[in-house]
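Quick one, T. Sequence first:
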Amino acid sequence: MPPAPRPVRVALGTLLIPLVIATLIGLIALWPGASRRVTDPVTRLRGTVENATPACPLGIPAMPGGPCGTATVRIGRGDEVVNATVPSGRSAPKIEPGDRVVLQSSGRGDYAVVDYDRSRPLLILIALFAAVVIGFARWRGFTSLIGLAVSFAVLLLFVLPAIQQGEPPLAVAVVGSAAIMFAVIYLTHGISVSTSVAVLGTLASLALTGLLGLLVTNAMRLTGAGTDETAILSNLLVGVDLRGLLLAGIIIGTLGVLDDVTITQTSIVNELTLADPTLPARRLYTSALRVGRAHAAAVVNTIILAYAGASLPLMLLFVAGGARPMDVITTQAIAAEIVRGIIGTLGLIAAVPITTALAAWISVKRRI
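Structure tokens:
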């Protein structure tokens, strides 16, 4: 593509620079300080099982040194060996000698096996994932992994601590999503006029998604409660805005798909322009929009099924209890997941015409 004329670059800079400055100001204003820490006297340790007895029958508690439900575990790679109890039941870990496990201790010398230690296979899987991405996409794959690391850094260092500290979850999600978007899109796709168009399309769609989420959650009187996780959060973080947390989840969950759609639409317009530089803006828009409709239709199914899959155990629980389908989908927890999927999809659909129109306008201006 030929370079964009200076007036176009100035116009894009005039739009983007204030948004970048506003994001930086938001990060500074909402950056977490001394967060509210939850006092947890429980210590978690990792070790290797050396010996284990069979699980105790139902109704018989496991006791350290008893005939059932116990294990001898070596802590880390040191010489300390402890006796630990092993929980029973269908969901309890079935341990054998050589298994790497997680122990929980209250500090009084009693230990209990609570889970398997999955750190080693997880690290291997992450390394394999990174190797495949870099091997296939080369430098672009490497930059995308850097962008992914930035996304997790923003979530872990800013979004979650700020919400824990008591900042409004919606404001934190908007600022955090904008920071992730600027970093990830420019790192992955480079600094260019086309990338800037995708950034503007993503920002506009995120703003629309947040507004729609706010209106719909108000109209449906969704509080964000209704699950075990929110009940625990309400006890641990008194005063946390659960509805704001629901809106924050909608915005952050939509961000990743918007990146895909906006970059794709700008690339389609660029390719059409290269194939026929005489195409007017209207033809570029309508041709790229046809491709965008097919892409959006496919992604819609992906989003809805992703949210349905995440809620499958909860839906099964309701159905197993004899609830009717309409009773299931109108419960607080399931309705919230439906709203997530629908609002995210509407934001995705809006991204297609917005980004396509911007990209078509820029492509025509480049010929001048």
